């Protein structure tokens, strides 16, 4: 079972089994928001899957789905290329599309205006690098590294705390924006229970990239101070952390949870170091350009491809999980 | 009285006098859409003016405006630079912002989902160049010209017909998208009663640009066939045409109409040929690039600046008007 098919099936079942009929009846417009949409096309597939499932549910209740309209809000940070997103919107889409720029750690939508939130692979991106990790004189200064998973306990704690704070803000904002009874369907790459941060697959990938930067610093190509003050704002939660966040917030029930263990195993990108290097480059290029400039990127990612190849068995030994989660907004 | 102040006053009065209290009470979210927003900042000023006026109205009814939220949809064609728009959104805005790509001659929003539509200076842009004007063997082939106002009767008729069709589609779409009783506030540059197309100020400006292109064609810099097959899809309605369109549609009452005669007269840009040339270049560059390529633009707009200077007294004799219009959605 491929990851795409698994995701589609999860969405369909979640809506079939968990979406309240009252929500379908409460408005003629069903509003969906995808958080962290990037430039498509995955976001478009998700929107289509959701709409198909809602229409099926609508029909199964004996309702006339012709009268139901959909509006999909595509959200990402303001720096996202919304022009590209808009130009690639499917022309035969069955929904009204809108783009919403801004961090999903703050409010994006009016009160009780969204029927269903969706987010795939975006939630690990934190609102910011923890401030203490940026404090050169503090105990969490992350010298010689660009990530938390292979760093000191202080750095790990700072990332943990930032994640907890972010999740609180994330859920607090969504709790206001979603209608009572509304669903949130999330795909969240996480850390498998019992696996240390440093043995988790996506983390390994970032650690190796950090070691490449330090190699370039030793060669004098990159200013070491720039490496010291650079950190990737991404954190993989354990299932316990995720549950705690939902519990702390108190506005949502966990309606369904699945662990997709084999998601990354099926992803052939992890078996091709060159492909992986170019994919990571695509996703991080903006961040790296800001800190290190354009010039070093080619050399950095060439070295990265080589190191990934050398350390391929370590990469493949990394453990990974994707949490598939359905939350429902409790009545106030 | 400057044009900006006049626009603000018109919006404030329209909302104060014409916005039904039921609309304010019907939802906790007041949704505004600006059609043809470009990249701001005028669109942001309009949104702020509208919100300020709605809040005042809300308070004047003894309601607590703290509970009212605003969502503003910024619409323009998909080719618009939404990235620029999003990056320049005021950080202290009092509304949730969304971008909506697509032609306002089709549907953009769910049924009855918008409380107030606004559009400033965008409605003269047609959905397309009339097809008959593009037919090289037909009677409306616009040889040697790029605009209708100085062209044959057949070309003028084709533009008139396209405008009538566009207005029908425009009003039909809005009639479905707006709530019953909702307002539409439009600023529409038009043709003053009794003024021929060719003596209307914005038209004069385009006619002179067309003559520059023909000069370049005669010099062999531009392929004349490219001039023949190029037309600017912009049409200025008379007040009668505007009234007819609203009447034909039948879903809206005209609640208020003002003619701002001095709008262009106050605009110093028309007194500075160089400034005018560069402003027209900014607004048409995309269109011209597509048809004629990058290379001719500098030469074209340098010549344009010169011609505008030579013909400045003619430009200044041009007649202009902006229709300020408030429409209200009638109950079904």
Automatic annotation (TrEMBL), chains A, B:
One of its GO terms (biological process) is methylation. Keywords: Magnesium, Metal-binding, Methyltransferase, Transferase. It comes from the Eukaryota. The keyword Magnesium applies. GO terms for molecular function: metal ion binding; S-adenosylmethionine-dependent methyltransferase activity. This is S-adenosylmethionine-dependent methyltransferase. It comes from Prunus persica.
């Amino acid at each position: 079972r491929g990851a795409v098919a698994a995701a589609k099936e999860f969405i369909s079942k979640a809506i079939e089994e968990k979406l309240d009929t009252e929500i379908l009846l409460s408005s003629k417009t069903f509003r969906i928001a995808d958080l962290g949409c990037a430039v498509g096309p995955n976001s478009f597939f998700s929107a289509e899957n959701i709409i198909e499932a809602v229409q099926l549910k609508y029909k199964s209740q004996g309702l006339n789905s012709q009268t139901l309209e959909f509006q999909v809000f595509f959200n990402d940070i303001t720096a996202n290329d919304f022009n590209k997103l808009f130009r690639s919107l499917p022309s035969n889409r069955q929904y009204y599309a809108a783009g919403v720029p801004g961090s999903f750690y703050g409010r994006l939508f009016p009160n009780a205006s969204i029927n269903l939130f969706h987010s795939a692979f975006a939630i690990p991106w934190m609102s910011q690098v923890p401030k203490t990790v940026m404090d050169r004189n503090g105990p969490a200064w992350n010298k010689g590294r660009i990530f938390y998973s292979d760093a000191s306990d202080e750095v790990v704690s700072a990332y943990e705390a930032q994640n907890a704070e972010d999740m609180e803000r994330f859920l607090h904002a969504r709790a206001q924006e979603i209608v009572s009874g509304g669903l949130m369907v999330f795909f969240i790459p996480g850390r498998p229970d019992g696996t240390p941060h440093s043995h988790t697959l996506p983390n390994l990938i970032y650690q190796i990239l950090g070691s490449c930067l330090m190699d370039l610093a030793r060669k004098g190509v990159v200013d070491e101070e720039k490496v010291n003050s650079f950190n990737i704002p991404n954190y993989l939660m354990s299932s316990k952390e995720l549950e705690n966040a939902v519990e702390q917030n108190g506005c949502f029930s966990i309606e369904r949870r699945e662990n997709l263990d084999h998601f990354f195993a099926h992803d052939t990108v992890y078996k091709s170091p060159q492909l992986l290097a170019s994919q990571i480059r695509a996703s991080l290029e903006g961040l790296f350009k800001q800190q290190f400039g354009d010039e070093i990127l080619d050399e950095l990612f060439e070295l990265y491809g080589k190191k990934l190849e050398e350390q391929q068995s370590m990469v493949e030994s990394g453990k990974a999980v994707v949490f598939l989660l359905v939350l429902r907004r409790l009545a106030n």
